[in-house]
Amino acid sequence: MTLAHKTPLTPLDDAFTPEGGKQLPAPLKSLRDIRSKAITGMALPNRRTENWKYSSRYLKLDPELAPQTQGTGDADYRSVEGVYRLVIRNGVVDLDSSNLPSASGVDIRRFVDLDDVAAQSVAKKLDTTLDHGTTQLAALNTARLEDGVLIRLSADTSVDKPVYIQYVTDAGASGSNYPRVMVEAGQGSKMTLVEEYISNGDQPVLVDSVSELLLDDSANITYIRLCMDPANVRHIGATGVKVGANAKLDSHCIGFGGDLRRHDLQVRLEGQGGYARLNGIALTQDRQHYDNHTAIDHVVPNCDSDENYRCLAADRSHAIFNGRIHIHPDAQQSHADMNNKNLLLSTNAEIDTKPELEIYADDVTCAHGATVGQLDEGSLFYLTSRGIDRDTAATMLSMAFVHELVGQVPLEDIREAVNTRLTDFIEASFRRAAE
Amino acid sequence: MAESNKPEDFVKHEYEAGFVTDIESDTFEPGLNEDVIKRLSQIKGEPEWMLEWRLEAYRQFQEMTEPNWQKVNFEPVDLQSISYYSAPKKDSDKPQSLDEVDPELLRTYEKLGIPLHEQKALAGVAGAGTPAESEAESTGGGGAYSNVAVDAVFDSVSVVTTFKEKLAEAGVIFCSISEALQEHPELVKQYLGSVVPRGDNYFASLNSAVFSDGSFVYVPKGVKCPMELSTYFRINAENTGQFERTLIIADEGASVSYLEGCTAPQRDENQLHAAVVELVALDDAEIKYSTVQNWYPGDENGNGGIFNFVTKRGMARGKNSKISWTQVETGSAVTWKYPSCVLKGDNSVGEFYSVALTNNYQQADTGTKMIHLGKNTRSTIIAKGISAGHSDQSYRGLVKFQPTAEGARNFTQCDSLLIGDKCGAHTFPYIENKNSSATVEHEATTSKVSDEQMLFCRQRGIDPEQAVSMIVNGFCKEVFKELPMEFAVEAGKLLEVSLEGSVG
């Protein structure tokens, strides 16, 4: 397992000159050094690496990706109403462009601004939500840690508007960046966190992002991840979540394919009464790729999880889903449900799915279902016979396929925006196929 | 009987086939090298090409490393410490009839309940058309096993094959693979390794190099095999591995149903069983392959038992052909097998029905592969796993649609039943679809023998042990109904035996 490469990436020391001259606090720096050492000389995941089996062929870390993304000053800040905005530009936290909540109980800070005590506490918690055996590239993120954002909610704080993180890559920028976010949600706190990746460039860019969410008892976090930027941006993202007793995670991950798109979502239910809902939609077209890997660990008894992922693959694209539910010994009375449905929209597309169950307790109910199919000819005929052209009919049916999940996205504005973008994306792919 | 009412307390494994037969045997010194292979080939009087084939397999094997991706833990097998050939010693070369078979050996089969001797019909070994055989015909399969031809493999050699003559009348060739190499070398040469190539995987390569015996079946064009065929495998000698090779060919329009069973003595050390089974179905042919696997699973502390590393694959080569695997796996300390179907012919069908039961410290990583190549190919997978004690069980399956598999379909269902809270049940289904007109559905559930079910049975005066067995049998019903009738009964009983007795 690992990360060396035929053409080695630029050594860490050369790659980073921290913005504004600020240095990471010592505890975080030493964590970075440890990771950095750990990945030195490691090989990139290949076809034989189980969790990269279907995706390793897209994992081409060309030397041009090695340098850190440099800003060109030409950024596309999409304005979003009614939210607190936090901008991470080219991997670097940009507080000036952000609009942060001022209420007490919400503390948002750059890693570089942390004092040693706070940094020590963050360093202890970083990397604890992800299994580095299966998220090798999240380790690379820590190894290249330069800055990050800590969002801390005090007990019983309820953030009135969603916190919207925009990961912006400047037009014309290239290279790689490693954004890092950590959320500590105190007891009984509540927040909606949205992450959106935005870019309008056409240069190859690698975004290797890691977000970690620590939910204390009874915390309630809604997590929305929108990875819908252009294909040239290669994404390797990992989201790790620890869910405490009676806490709740409501996750919605929506993504469009690209040259390389990978999202690992790992949720550990660590307190009794915890609940996680994982919804996901992935769309691919052209020669795009999208790989969703999820893992839900039921560590203690009496937790529930529901998972529902849908993928649509058009043209010559390749969509992958791998879901794992792991019921630990003694995690009795666990209820886990995983559902993965896939639509192949073209003969040349490929969908691979692997819904796994790993169960070590007997008094549990676990079920998973997976299907891969195509649009129903009968339904298409029904619509076309009523004067709807075939592309429109196919788009309607495809949207119907994801409708249930889109409908569950909790914020209306986002839901509508997602709906429009999905429709455009699907329509475009049918139109192209028809040409 | 304990007071307890928990299902796991009624689960205990008593292995009934664990005796050792004390007969003289010729056994090779432990060790694996080219000389051993040459000697093996020489003893069997094999043609030159066969030896070359084995040696090439051995060369490929030496390049390989033991796979470690399976979800099982075991001490690696020291291949140099086992013997690659062991045969019951006989004065003559091979018994021509049961009369010539060592009575000790016959008693072995009798103990096992293998109907070699008790069935009068089996006198037919000595010659066709004996009164006894006609009697068997007249019963028309009414009595259990009365219409089954058996090939018995004891350690490394096939001891006896029954009903050969009767089968020959229908044109069916049913014999040991060593015999087939002598009498039908052209068929063996044509098909051996055509489904599982020599370099397929570590244990298949090992098997290709050192396989000792196994069954060979050829059903000619248009022939429906008049009776069930069956092979019975037994490991007896100490420090030996069993490497059998089975090759079944159903020519155009032919059909055959085949069953294998296996047992081994109770020993403290682990013994290796690495078999290869190849099935070839040509146009419109049908092969049904059933396994009742009852190798020694080790004692209740996980000592001893057979390592069962088997490669089984069927090639539905012709149009409209069909291959059906049914397996009941209750034995072995570690099982690692994936009976597969390559659906090459258009409209061909693949089926996999499996019940796997693990108890104590048994581990099983089993499942199937359905590779869809032809148009309108269909496959069905029904896998039922039952884990009890400290055992660990995984279903691992692959369903793959190549771009050529227009209109193909798969349905998969895998259910697990857990008995007790110390066991594990896992599912790793791989689904790879490269054809938009192909449809695949996969479902899996996990459940336990519920208190409600137990209460329901107890209220009706059914004792707990029987209740567990009933519930488990009900859970497996879909698979048992695929087994040939006689064996379905045996399989049901086997599950009962495996679950019998109370611990607490």
UniProtKB/TrEMBL annotation, chain A:
Pfam families: SUFBD_core. It comes from the Bacteria. GO terms for biological process: iron-sulfur cluster assembly. Residues 173-401 form the SUF system FeS cluster assembly SufBD core domain. Residues 1-26 are annotated as: Disordered. This is Fe-S cluster assembly protein SufD. It comes from Vreelandella halophila. The gene is sufD.
From TrEMBL, chain B:
Signal peptide: none annotated. NCBIfam families: PRK11814.1 (NF008773), sufB (TIGR01980). Residues 233-475 form the SUF system FeS cluster assembly SufBD core domain. PANTHER family: FES CLUSTER ASSEMBLY PROTEIN SUF (PTHR30508), UPF0051 PROTEIN ABCI8, CHLOROPLASTIC-RELATED (PTHR30508:SF1). The lineage of its organism: Bacteria, Pseudomonadati, Pseudomonadota, Gammaproteobacteria, Oceanospirillales. It comes from the Bacteria. One of its GO terms (biological process) is iron-sulfur cluster assembly. Belongs to the iron-sulfur cluster assembly SufBD family. This is Fe-S cluster assembly protein SufB.
